């Protein structure tokens, strides 16, 4: 209940330890994009954000929104059009390459050119920022390498050459190398692009665990909206108007920002579930569905895919009947009842029935 004395909680009032943690990464008035033949094409403008130790952040945006451009700029391999990027409080432009490699590791989406090197050798290169002039691995380096290999489960590829790996296996190797580089900041451009679902989940969970346990800041770009919403501490959303909006997944869903970032005709964003649905609904196809549980969920989904509005106001009713392991669907309309044993039969029947209705309407 609000009273005159109620004050609004703001980020300024947060726990001092979070607020005062040093920024691992900070962008100030950052504009990113491209310059060619005197023509400047900005992709993001006046961006301001910070990344703190232990944060696991997913960068999202529609195709061409500027995620890769931002990642390349933050990693210092592309110059900003304007503004500054600070890593550990130091302007990235003033950091020597060798020093930068101790602060930031980068995994890009492009294929890795590793000649005839085998996987283990490529992994050991992750320790080069700390090696002596001869590149000798110390005991401590070997422990870190072994630990990262165990964490990502790539033991069985170690003797293979990089070009003998599948895209997904190669991706895992490059993520392992980033862990071996052991920097306070890890940036990854679409690290799960070539992985199947179990591997995507495994890698995302591993990166999130790393952030938590080792206080690394981890930023990754992805098109995996669902996984990002479930796992990220914060989401960075590249918006169609070239701004970047940051927040917790739930805040961005509830305040409509998420929806705006991916707005496209033919898709509806469902705030209840945080998912996009293909919008196939047709106004003249209305049906009432009665039942519950798993059968209700999958029947509802099949009907929506067919373009039906599921509404209690329709006199056309589909009943789900369930008894022990047995189930069926009963269709009732104008006093008649028909029984179906599969969703396929239900859909076939409804298609036919509503087609006849449409034809009848057109003839009238
Ligand atoms: N080298 C380049 N020169 C000029 N424009 C470029 C260059 N690379 C990318 N762009 C443009 O910059 C914009 C942002 O591209 P970017 O690759 O950063 O987007 P993205 O969000 O990573 O896209 P996707 O999700 O499709 O990978 C796009 O309009 C793209 O055409």
TrEMBL record:
PROSITE patterns found in the cross-reference section: ABC_TRANSPORTER_2
Residue stretches spanning the membrane: none
Keyword Phosphoprotein among UniProt keywords: no
Keyword Nucleotide-binding set for record: yes
Organism: Ohtaekwangia koreensis
Protein name as annotated: Iron complex transport system ATP-binding protein
Organism lineage: Bacteria, Pseudomonadati, Bacteroidota, Cytophagia, Cytophagales
Keywords on record: ATP-binding, Nucleotide-binding, Transport
InterPro entries, alphabetized: AAA+_ATPase (IPR003593), ABC_transporter-like_ATP-bd (IPR003439), Metal_Ion_Import_ABC (IPR050153), P-loop_NTPase (IPR027417)
């Amino acid at each position: 209940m609000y009273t005159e004395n109620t004050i609004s909680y703001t980020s300024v009032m947060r726990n001092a330890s979070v607020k005062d943690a040093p920024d691992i990464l900070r962008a100030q008035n950052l504009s990113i994009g491209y310059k060619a033949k005197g023509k400047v094409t900005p992709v993001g403008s006046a961006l301001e954000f910070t990344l703190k130790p232990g944060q696991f952040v997913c960068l999202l945006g529609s195709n061409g929104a500027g995620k890769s451009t931002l990642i390349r700029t933050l990693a210092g391999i592309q110059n900003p059009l304007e503004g500054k990027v600070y890593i550990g409080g130091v302007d990235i432009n003033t950091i020597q390459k060798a020093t930068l490699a101790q602060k930031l590791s980068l995994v890009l989406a492009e294929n890795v050119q590793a000649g005839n090197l085998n996987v283990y050798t490529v992994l050991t290169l992750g320790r080069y920022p700390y090696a002596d002039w001869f590149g000798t691995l110390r005991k401590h380096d070997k422990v870190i390498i072994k630990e990262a290999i165990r964490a990502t489960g790539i033991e069985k590829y170690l003797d293979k050459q990089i070009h003998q790996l599948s895209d997904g296996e190669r991706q895992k190797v490059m993520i392992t190398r980033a862990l071996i580089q052991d920097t306070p900041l890890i940036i990854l451009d679409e690290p799960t692009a070539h992985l199947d679902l179990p591997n995507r989940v495994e890698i995302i969970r591993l990166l999130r665990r790393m952030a938590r346990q080792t206080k690394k800041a981890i930023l990754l770009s992805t098109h995996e909206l669902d996984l990002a919403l479930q796992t990220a501490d914060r989401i960075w959303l590249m918006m169609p108007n070239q701004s970047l909006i940051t927040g917790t997944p739930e805040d961005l869903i509830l305040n409509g920002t998420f929806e705006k970032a991916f707005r496209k005709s033919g898709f509806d964003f469902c705030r209840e579930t945080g998912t996009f649905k293909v919008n196939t609904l047709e106004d003249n196809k209305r049906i009432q569905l009665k039942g519950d549980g798993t059968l209700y969920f999958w029947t509802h989904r099949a009907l929506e895919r067919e373009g039906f509005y599921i509404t209690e106001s329709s006199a056309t009713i589909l009943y789900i009947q369930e008894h022990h392991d047995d189930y069926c669907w009963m269709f009732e309309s104008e006093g008649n009842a028909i029984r179906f044993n599969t969703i396929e039969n239900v859909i076939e029947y409804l298609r036919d029935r509503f087609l006849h209705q449409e034809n009848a309407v057109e003839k009238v």
